[in-house]
Amino acid sequence: MTDEQLAVLQGKLLLFYTGMTRSASAILRKQADHSAKNADYLMKIKEQCSLLKRDLEEGGRGDGLGAILHEGWELKKRLADGITNPIIDEWYQKAIRNGASGGKVAGAGGGGFLLLCADEQYHEALRREIGLQALEVRLDSQGTRIVACPE
Q: Predicted confidence band at 136 (pLDDT cuts at 50, 70, 90)?
């Protein structure tokens, strides 16, 4: 990706700290216990990487990212109990009503961070309506790193 493409994609992302802690290993254990039942969901989630790669290669602007995240979130919630809860669902629905095209809870689920995709014109309304601490998102080629953790 060019620096410009990366900046456009990065500009679509919002990351909110939910303030909820959970046992990621417990949620992942539940998913593993149902691995046979979840095989189709997991394959569809894996296929999303190819869809996003194609979207970025063809247009370079990540216009399909929100829809891909939304579909992945719908699939992820089916993997095990505890991936979402009524509060997370409410935040997500507020986000969709206020301009987000998709999103998901990052990691195993159940809390942690809510990642949303929206055109920048909706970011202020999303920050206001969600009411959670928003963190700056920066993409790089080194993968996920914790640079600062909210208290």
A: confident
